[in-house]
Amino acid sequence: MQDIPKHVQYFENLLGKENTKSDKLHKLAYSYDATREEREPDIVLFPRDENEISKILFYCNAHKIPIVPRGAGSGFTGGSIVAQGGVVLALEKYMNKILELDQKNLIVRVQPGVINKDLQNFVESHGLFYPPDPASENQSTIGGNVSENAGGMRAAKYGITKDYVMAVRAVLPNGDIIRAGKKTIKDVAGYNIAGILIASEGTLAVITEITLKLLSKPILKRSAMGVFDTIESAMNAVYKTMASGVTPVAMEFLDNLSIRAVEQKFHKGLPMEAGAILITEVDGNLPEEITYQLAKIEEKFKENGCVDFKVAKDSKEGEDLWFARRNVSQSISVYGKKKLNEDITVPRANLPLLLAEIDKVSKKYGFKIPCFGHTGDGNVHTNVMVEDLNDLEKGHQAITEIFKIAVDLEGTLSGEHGIGLAKAPFMNLAFSPEEMQLFRSIKQAFDPNNILNPNKMGL
Amino acid sequence: MQDIPKHVQYFENLLGKENTKSDKLHKLAYSYDATREEREPDIVLFPRDENEISKILFYCNAHKIPIVPRGAGSGFTGGSIVAQGGVVLALEKYMNKILELDQKNLIVRVQPGVINKDLQNFVESHGLFYPPDPASENQSTIGGNVSENAGGMRAAKYGITKDYVMAVRAVLPNGDIIRAGKKTIKDVAGYNIAGILIASEGTLAVITEITLKLLSKPILKRSAMGVFDTIESAMNAVYKTMASGVTPVAMEFLDNLSIRAVEQKFHKGLPMEAGAILITEVDGNLPEEITYQLAKIEEKFKENGCVDFKVAKDSKEGEDLWFARRNVSQSISVYGKKKLNEDITVPRANLPLLLAEIDKVSKKYGFKIPCFGHTGDGNVHTNVMVEDLNDLEKGHQAITEIFKIAVDLEGTLSGEHGIGLAKAPFMNLAFSPEEMQLFRSIKQAFDPNNILNPNKMGL
Prior knowledge:
Chains A, B: GO terms for molecular function: FAD binding; oxidoreductase activity. Two copies of one chain form a homodimer. Chain A is an alpha+beta fold. Chain A contains 15 helices and 18 strands. In chain A, 58% of the residues are buried.
């Protein structure tokens, strides 16, 4: 980036020195996300409101300065780090307020920098419920969640971020401020701009305000765990349960490698020989609903080879059942220095085939590939564990094969992490040249000078 | 349109004479929709498959021929009629097949010309459930439903068409065939193209295949009706019930004028003096769920001035309760020769204010304005009844005021009917010049020669 001192001067005049940073410490602090890749911006800006964002974008557009909106920087694909210098627009410092709770309409209006878990806690204190719960919920922001269309454990029943976004305010790259969507359940006037901004990874506009749908908080919930001898039987149980007329809140799995890793670290008495465990939760307002759902799940599990089914007696036991799932990600590091983790997703009925194919990749390349994740919606976190860093290239070959398998099984490169920089090279596995051209045309329609988060998503 | 014989010749070579029509009868048959406006196309084409559609679009694009995709022609805003000559692409003749029922994943894949009710019946015969049920369900096609983002009575609990579209195949104006979305619940790779095609009214691409999410069919349902002395108390009951922790499948209302119209025509013993009635339905898999929901609704209704609450004993009585709602649209014609009907939508808690303001418009202009509709999601069908056709202009002024009221109450011009030609003049009430410019940029990205359904949506 050229003329940095000149641009810094402009931004200092606009935002104040305290909100315009180009020192080494700030550049470092805003250079990374959960990919652990480091790319330093030239300038970090802390806008206080939408009007400042509009002026910043207008200026960057006029000077063709790349600019990347950023929440907590907890993403897994490099969505919030610069590709090659430029400005980071840091939204977590000031743009972090819950603006309105509309209990009459079950709606909350927030700024993008609000942390997911803070929002959940806030609305639950009013008897309401915001279901999307990405594993990063304690760090990640709603703006980031919307930009990546974050999922989470409760997606099996409650869907993902896009199912809760009713409206947004946003600033276009030219500085224009727009509203999109409404506080109404139905709205068919004009193109669905909010819909295309979701999962656009900050490449089309900077979202400055988000209106979210809330639900009433269910009164009761109960967890259960099923143990299976083989992963195939567990995967069969998943899709047959989900098609049985009950919809559990969550339906998570750990494969044998994942179970062993957690057990070795925490000694919780997990079934070390099991092919897989499924951990599930149901909710409702009536005890009868809970009983009915658990009975149906037990029936479907046992029809499909479940050798042990345990229902948590209370919330304490429920938390114990969930312990393995919540601690699996850190535990599997025992299998290798470098973890290449992906979040492919397939239609649920293809899960048995997917896991069988991943096993073949593991054997072919000689890597352990522990798998766990959100099987209730077909989303599997695959982790190619590389022990010898000289094998990294081979690890990436294994990942490429896994992506191909997922796409062949009518699945997607990413269920919830996004594309960003990390998966950009694989976009051509999933999309035709015509489809990529359409993406570029849309990018061009919003951002003709290509200043907003450039070089992401393979565009 | 120029050179019609030349174009007819080309299309006859491509599709055969039997699928290329430019005679008066066909032009007339494809000139109207439910707006009753008549605009004749120059040519009507009946493509047999996606490849033919691709070739037709390529040709139209090269010759800048306007082309309008059409399903059943049952829309309320002119979305499927030509603005000014050109080609109608009639999809109901051949592109009307259910291609795949995937019971393992609760998914169905259809061509755009499948009639909504046929799809509902088909999946219900397999114990599955496709909730969107627009009033036009016996005529309207899934392609039209997707293009207008159709709602229906069950939207209060089950959402609208967009909540069920997982993926589409479509042909771009240049003839490129694209896929968008996946058979997976989560998919965040690439821009949400399926999301922006929904409700785009056939202005961006021709949808050739639609993959829809299904649910398991709930085992039980029960209907109930509440009678209220005033419309205000009924509207308060609506939003307080919807925020109470139960979510009825439907929560429909008729105001006093609507009740009287049905009663005068059908003599069903409706409460002629009531300010409004609310008709509701709950569903579930357990009797306890039904009882719980009905008790909560009764409690909320009675807290808000319900003077009579009746639960249907069986499905026969349930049908009787729904009779008034199903027959209100035809009944209100007693109030005037010309019905100017709109489908404004507001956040539910603003319904009492909305209905009060509509009453003022009624008094100011001297028109009867019977209102009914989907209050469970804030969607009100307002009907300005014009007796003397010399008063039509005044009727349109009343409609304009109603649109302004809806927008001022954080609502939308259209909850489910779309914009098309009919509401195009009102787009500037709802959108800023910057927002309209963004719509035009998106249109341009998909359709640079503006051949696809031009002059719709105020673009």
